[in-house]
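During the no-cost extension, the postdoctoral fellow (Dr. R.K.) reprocessed legacy sequence entries with the updated structure-token encoder. One reprocessed record is reproduced below for audit purposes.
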Amino acid sequence: MLPIVVYTDGAALGNPGPGGFAAVLMYGDKRKEIFGAYALTTNNRMELLAVIRALDNIKSRGIPVHIYSDSQYVCNAILKGWLFGWKKKGWTKVKNPDLWQRFYPLYELLKPQFHWVKGHSGVPENERCDVLATQAAANGPFDKDVWYETNVAAPDKLL
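Re-encoded structure tokens follow.
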């Protein structure tokens, strides 16, 4: 059985700043590109959101899923088992708990395998995601990263 192959990337112009995410999903000869942007967010949030949005787009079940990401933050969370410890501790003392809580059920449902790839190393689909995410961060249209703006970037939290 052919796997679904997914490449993802996130970008932030300033960290925090305007951010973008992108994913390329491939299955056989089918290909889909997704991307989006947020007015104020972080690179790590966009890296993780790229994976979430890609998994949200997979409707078939029982097909192996391979995710390639240049984010050590995302890959290590799964490959080193951090994700499971964060869940056991109720998502306390973890950055981006809202996104990890969105990711976890998708992970359980699809059981994707994660593969880290070095960024900017000439891997065509990773490079494509970088272009899409960076363009999205630069040009929008921008959504609002409500959780981040409310819980992290709120002015009263910065004092």
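The radius of gyration is 15 Å. The chain has a mean pLDDT of 95. The remaining legacy entries will be reprocessed before the final report is submitted.
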